[in-house]
Specification:
Layout: H1 9-12, H2 20-41, H3 50-72, H4 86-96, H5 108-124, H6 131-142, H7 148-152, H8 154-165, H9 168-178, H10 182-191, H11 201-217, E1 234-235, E2 265-268, E3 273-275, H12 276-283, H13 306-317, H14 335-344, H15 347-356, H16 364-388, H17 391-416
Antiparallel strand pairs: 1-2, 2-3
């Protein structure tokens, strides 16, 4: 059996190798662009509607495909664009692709899958294009009619016909929204002195959704005890002929329907009737109906008051160590300014600078852990400022959040290109 190197190419190659430019481009710059765009999208999703919302959902799936390209191939030593001929590619895939059975390579979709990712890698590594242009070109490949992805990904498939139905000028307009100038947009968001209308319900909903999304992506929200804000969907009973409460066995009174009485009759989505106090307490322990065992439908997060969401989170942060400090250098040396170096320089220029520098980056390991804690508290302070109507505090937190994200992206770039600590 031939000996194929299974190390990730970011480890196998070094900055003094010209091919390392491809690592800096794809595992570095492209992944960095995805992090920036995802961050900027956190507080915007709730404000979109219709077709635009669907296209941005498809963009998320597109980003997942790029992550899978790196995980399934490049991080397993398979450079599907770097093989010299088809025979070598076949041998590499058969030898190193994990979990496949011999008959898998005979399945028509297997090689369609390989060919799809091979072309996607080539598009994203094209250093004659800017990052935004490369991402837009990759998007067009993903949106191919009758392409591999349109047959295998439902979210993207739902957008393919819509995309091709758009006139060319509308496609161009949409691409500018999906893949805007990265640093210009990011810096603009951070430095924008305009303050939204804090009394606008849609703005408050977007900020609350962004808060929840951000904590979920950090793996924090699932650690929070949400029993005080997660409730079953309940309505007034459809009949006045009431049974006894099946939890406490006390009689239910029709006179209490629609009142604020603690034991007022309420009806679940499975049409069973209980005392409100009893069913709410039951739900904190068991998420199924005590009568029929059907899983309860719960109130959507968008209908939970933002103040209640924040209070719930504050109970969690009482046990966290707050970050001791976070300072960002002033312009033109701020973390956002530094990030522009990675985004705007060519991959080969980055490679040559990495060869020349003293690569001692151990200190950023502890800094990365500190930044994670900073992100948690900044997310909390941003929503608190919105609910308090504190416009000055809101702008300060937005600026700090952008700086912390820029620094995290810088560290991520170093780690993903093998030029920083693992």
């Amino acid at each position: 059996m031939e000996n194929f190197d299974s190390e990730p190419r970011r480890i196998r190659l070094t900055p003094d190798n010209v091919e390392f430019s491809n690592v800096l481009r794809l595992e570095g710059q492209i992944e960095l662009a995805i992090q920036i765009l995802t961050y900027m999208d956190l507080y915007s999703q709730q404000l979109r509607a219709g077709d635009e919302r669907m296209f941005f959902g498809a963009r998320e799936e597109y980003f997942v495909l790029i992550t899978e390209l790196i995980f399934h191939f490049l991080d397993r030593g398979i450079d599907i664009c770097g093989t010299t001929d088809l025979d070598t590619l076949v041998k590499e895939v058969e030898h190193k692709y994990p979990g496949h059975q011999p008959e898998d390579t005979n399945h028509p979709d297997f090689w369609a899958w390989i060919r799809f990712y091979q072309k996607l890698q080539g598009i994203l590594q094209d250093q004659t294009k800017s990052l935004e242009e490369a991402l837009a070109s990759g998007w067009k490949w993903v949106m191919e009619k009758d392409g591999y992805v349109s047959k295998t990904d439902a979210t993207i498939a739902a957008c393919v016909d819509m995309w091709h139905a758009l006139p060319t000028d509308k496609q161009t307009e949409l691409l500018k929204k999906l893949f805007p100038p990265l640093i210009e947009t990011f810096r603009g968001n951070a430095a924008d002195t305009r303050v939204p209308n804090f009394t606008d319900p849609s703005f408050i909903a977007a900020e609350t959704k962004g808060f929840l999304l951000g904590l979920s992506r950090m793996g924090i929200w699932e650690k929070v005890d949400t029993s005080s804000i997660s409730h079953p969907i309940l309505k007034e009973p459809s009949t006045t002929e009431l049974p006894d409460c099946a939890i406490c066995y006390e009689k239910l009174s029709a006179a209490d329907i629609g009142t604020e009485a603690k034991h007022r009759p309420v009806q679940t989505t499975c049409s069973h009737i209980f005392g409100n106090e009893c069913i709410q307490e039951w739900f904190t322990r068991i998420k199924a109906c005590p009568t029929c065992r059907e899983i309860f439908e719960t109130i959507p997060w968008k209908d939970v008051p933002p103040e209640a969401v924040l209070q719930c989170f504050d109970r969690y942060t009482r046990w966290l160590e707050p970050p001791l400090y976070f300072t960002a250098p002033p312009a033109p040396h701020s973390w956002v300014d530094k990030l522009s170096t990675i985004v705007e320089e060519s991959a080969d220029s980055l490679r040559q600078n990495l060869v020349a520098r003293d690569n001692t980056l151990r200190d950023i390991q502890s800094e990365n852990a500190t930044l994670s804690n900073v992100d948690i508290y900044l997310a909390r302070d941003r929503l608190r400022a919105v609910l308090d109507g504190d416009k000055k505090k809101y702008r300060e937190v937005v600026w700090k959040g952008a700086q912390a994200t820029a620094r995290s992206c810088w560290i991520l770039f170093l780690r993903h290109t093998g030029t920083g600590p693992a």
